[in-house]
Write a structure and sequence with these properties.
Number of domains: 1
CATH class: Alpha Beta
Strand content: 15-25%
Distance between the termini: 44 Å
Low-confidence stretches: none
Radius of gyration: 15 Å
Structural class: alpha/beta
Shape: globular
Strand order of the largest sheet: 1-6-5-2-4
Number of helices: 6
CATH topology: Oxidized Rhodanese, domain 1
């Protein structure tokens, strides 16, 4: 069966419908309690670290973690006063994921253009997975 809509078209459509931030825009907001950065990369991609303060929510579980009706729901996604800014390796999965969350009714979701690749290329602050886990210990 032929593909009638390729990944690039899906990503382009998502990018046209979701809020997209640059690395510089998010870097300037680091530490703001109204911002929750969400790392949707696969656990196997986290060896180099993550953005300081990021919550790891694997792409495959994201919708289940967000939906209060799901047995996998995570209360960290219940705070309507926060903006949830997603990132992945290059900004493609995060665009699709942000669109999916918008389709679920979330209005406080966005993503980082260029993802982890652009974040690290810009020399923006990162932390090891161990430091991230230690810092987040005891938080939802």
């Amino acid at each position: 069966m032929p593909i009638t809509k390729g990944y690039r078209q899906l990503v382009d459509e998502a990018m046209a419908q979701v809020t997209t931030y640059s690395v510089e825009q998010i870097r300037a907001r680091l530490g703001n309690p109204a911002l929750q950065i969400v790392d949707i990369r696969d656990i196997r991609e986290l060896g180099e670290g993550t953005i300081i303060g990021a919550l790891h929510a694997p792409r495959g579980m994201l919708e289940f973690w967000v939906d209060p009706a799901s047995p996998y729901h995570k209360p960290v996604f219940d705070d309507d006063s926060r903006e949830y800014v997603l990132f992945c390796g290059a900004g493609w999965r995060s665009a699709l994921a942000a669109k999916s969350l918008q389709d679920m009714g979330m209005t406080n979701v966005a993503h980082i253009d260029g993802g982890w690749a652009d974040w690290t290329k810009a020399g923006a602050p990162i932390e090891s997975l161990e430091d991230n886990k230690a810092r987040r210990k005891g938080k939802p």
